[in-house]
Amino acid sequence: MHTRTLGQDLEVSAVGLGCMGMSQSYGPNPGDRDDMIGVLRYAVEEAGITFFDTAEVYGPYVNEELVGEALAPLRDRVAIATKFGFDFQDGKSVGTNSRPEQIRRAAEGSLQRLGVDVIDLFYQHRVDPDVPIEEVAGTVGELVEAGKVRHFGLSEAAAGTIRRAHATHPVTAVQSEYSLWTRDPEPEVLPTCAELGIGFVPFSPLGKGFLTGTVSTSAEFADGDIRSTIPRFTADNLDANQALVRHVRALAEEKGAQPGQIALAWLLAQQPWIVPIPGTRRRGRIDENTGSTRVALSADEVAVLDALAAQIGVQGERYNEAGMSMVGL
């Protein structure tokens, strides 16, 4: 596994691991916690992944505990990113909260649950419209000065917000949804990251599983599966969106690869400072995802995929109305 650099000096594996699905959002959670710990350790020891993504809101809290326990014996080999920015009441998220006192509480909680002395990358999970981003960046800067955080990041923020934050404290990475079927960051966010020297971390780089070619038009999602709430995954839209997957699958067959590997290779080909974080619960998928670093796409192949994605388009929003209201602020 080769490495890439986010920001000025956060060196991580070219493909990371999004850990959310080990605790929520994709149907029934795994019954065997020890198995998930084994998968996380396998990712480091066998697949060479050194970049792991979690958040206090995943669970909430339990995903950080899982990641912390699993990676404790491997701490000197990994970078762990977590996130703040939500308010909690009775163990449930009730909206955004990035007030300074809440950020400091979140940092202390994450440090404890992860069992670490310092958070490698601390993202604001969603922009809080009630708190100036300069205040957020300044508070994280204080945590950096105190040795509790190494790097500051933003998630799903607009280009103007990124610029304002970066002017107060350097932003190391921006995390947003980005894939062949979610191109929202391309017009403004990616050029801003390029200009300012900020890394970019695509989550859901496989379209929440869609770009692996394993989600059929008749797919039925279990209780607790976030895809049951997403317009893009309704039956009609799934049928319309299969056209893109067919082209990805055809290219994969030509190259002796899997469709998901083509989707990840496409992302890796965009910029050397892009590090996708596909999520999974299975060792086989980890091997497949990291294998994408060995799938070389020519400039012509990338251009063809771009043209096809633009021509075919995507039916349905990537979040429901509530989710869409929290992105691009």
TrEMBL record:
The keyword Oxidoreductase applies. PANTHER family: AFLATOXIN B1 ALDEHYDE REDUCTASE, ALDO-KETO REDUCTASE. GO terms for molecular function: oxidoreductase activity. Residues 15-309 form the NADP-dependent oxidoreductase domain. This is Aldo/keto reductase. GO terms for cellular component: cytoplasm. The keyword Calcium does not apply. Keywords: Oxidoreductase. Pfam families: Aldo_ket_red (PF00248).
